[in-house]
Design a protein that fits this description.
Blueprint lengths: L19 E2 L1 E4 L3 H12 L4 E5 L15 E2 L5 H5 L6 H11 L6 H9 L1 H10 L8 E2 L13 E2 L9 H4 L6 E2 L13 H15 L3 E4 L19 H9 L6 E2 L5
Parallel strand pairs: 1-9, 2-3, 3-8, 5-6
Antiparallel strand pairs: 4-7, 6-7
Helix pairs in contact: 1-7, 3-4
The structure holds flavin-adenine dinucleotide (FAD).
Flavin-adenine dinucleotide binds next to helix 1 and strand 3.
């Protein structure tokens, strides 16, 4: 980034556009890829801009654990019982002195939907457990871990411990080259690309203005958010606007 302040300007003031799309997403990491997939599935032409040289973001270099629970098929296969209420009990205890109960409820109550969304985008999980402490990743390709300290005191006395860190799997994994985060993002980025999402990389040097759009239209909240965030690009995003 240049470090220069970004000043908004009206679309009418722009003489030429580098590109146009219904929806412009800034960032091809976990959030941007999810948003791009949903936008293209809703029928929009989607352009993703990323200042890096490739897709994936920090997510592709992360440990890639997806925190799921409440009795997923992987937990059952590994011999662990869990329930949505048990998971909520743990999170209420683990999220500090003033846990956001509404967020915990929303997260836990939509676990099945989240898991199925990922499965439908090619992410695969496995019902085997790496039972050791946090701070390391499974050594033999196991699919589950106690990533939240669920099996540590005092949480193991408050809620029934269950491994909830679900690790994305990939065929032909190469040690040291393909982390679980890479596995997660490869599936998601491949899905986005196969659905027709376009991407431009190393875009930061071209960042110069904000797009102002006037035409009101009914868009899903995700698309409106994307359009709002697209204002920091020199690319034009017209139909999906606020
Ligand atoms: C070492 C490590 C391990 C982690 N392990 C886990 C884990 O096991 N489980 C878990 O749930 N979370 C984990 N996280 C956290 C997780 O990686 C992040 O929460 C997640 O990546 C956030 O997604 P994101 O899309 O917001 O950001 P990112 O995935 O980083 O994507 C942001 C993208 O936006 C691009 N970008 C940024 N600014 C601009 C700009 N101005 N113009 C154009 N492009 C831009 C970046 O280049 C990047 O590609 C870990 C993080 C780290 C660092």
């Amino acid at each position: 980034m240049t470090g220069q302040p970004v000043t908004p300007c009206r679309a009418a003031e722009i003489e030429t556009w580098a590109d146009e799309a219904d929806v412009v997403v800034v960032g091809f990491g976990a959030a941007g890829t999810s948003a791009a997939i949903e936008a293209v599935a809703a029928g929009a032409e989607v352009l993703v801009l990323d200042r890096a040289g490739a897709a994936g973001g920090a997510a592709a270099m992360s440990d890639g654990f997806i925190y799921l629970g409440g009795g997923t098929p992987e937990q059952h296969a590994a011999g662990y019982e869990d329930s949505i209420e048990n998971m909520k009990t743990f999170l209420r205890a683990a999220c500090g002195p003033a846990p956001d109960e509404a967020k915990i409820d929303a997260y836990c109550d939509s676990i099945t939907e989240h898991r199925e969304w990922l499965l439908a985008r090619g992410v695969r999980f496995l019902g085997t457990v790496f039972p050791h402490a946090n701070g390391t990743s499974p050594v033999d390709g196991e699919g589950l871990m106690f990533t939240g300290g669920e099996n540590a005191y005092p949480f193991n006395t408050i809620a029934k411990p269950a491994p909830r860190g679900h690790i994305p799997q990939m065929a032909n994994k190469k040690a040291g080259e393909a982390s679980a985060g890479y596995m997660l993002m490869k599936s998601m980025v491949d899905t986005a690309t196969s659905l027709g999402v376009r991407a431009e990389y190393e875009t930061s040097r071209r960042t110069s203005c904000m797009v102002s759009v006037e035409a009101p239209c009914a868009v899903p909240p995700a698309a409106r958010w994307l359009a709002t965030n697209a204002r920091t690009t020199p690319f034009k995003s017209t139909p999906w606007c606020w």
